Amino acid sequence: MVKLTEEMKNDFAKMKIFPFATASKSGEPNVIPIGMCKLQEDGETIWITDNYFLKTRKNLDENPRGALYVWGPDIEGCYQIKGDIEIKTEGEDYEKMYKEVKAKSDKFPAKALVVMKITEVYECKAFAEPGKRLL
Amino acid sequence: MVKLTEEMKNDFAKMKIFPFATASKSGEPNVIPIGMCKLQEDGETIWITDNYFLKTRKNLDENPRGALYVWGPDIEGCYQIKGDIEIKTEGEDYEKMYKEVKAKSDKFPAKALVVMKITEVYECKAFAEPGKRLL
Asked: ipTM score here?
């Protein structure tokens, strides 16, 4: 696993919406905006709430890999993060996420907890060395 | 092919940065922010400039499919667009793009023109019917 640096953690915390990409087993790419995406204290685990995933969930069930990037207004760096995915629909972690989401609003279904363990981080800033592996 | 509606075209025109997803043939997802991404007048063709693509280009060479979404501040709808990709590094279309990009700044390499023919459009707004095919 790979831990984000302090600089990357700060950028991650400022993000409101992340583009989250998955692919089917046969290689059909998909990308959606996600709001509930939280870096855990270990700096190497991301919790994503599945409220409305359809193609994304199907992809993750058959091909448990995800990619997202950290970048936007007021964000210092531009990092692409890839990781291995585990889907949880019960257990302690799922219950914890479920309670937090329901506390925000009962309208969110919080169907599943998508746990992403970071495996790689890449540069994605133009004029730097985009595509270069950083971690 | 699929033509965007007038409403979708208006939203598309307001976007500054698009999240652009691809996948390797073996299904490894990738997503990057792209700035030079322009809907053509036919409403069904998107021109993307490859300035710094690395994994994205490798993916497109072996698996010519792409996905992006239209959404953000001041954007009315939320649409996910998928399409078939053709890479052009010479010819009339490539030359046209190359000149336009170089006119902005000589620092952009404009390595290739990524032509995406839209094949599907999906809803991606929360509380609507996210994942539903619209076109």
From this structure: 0.94
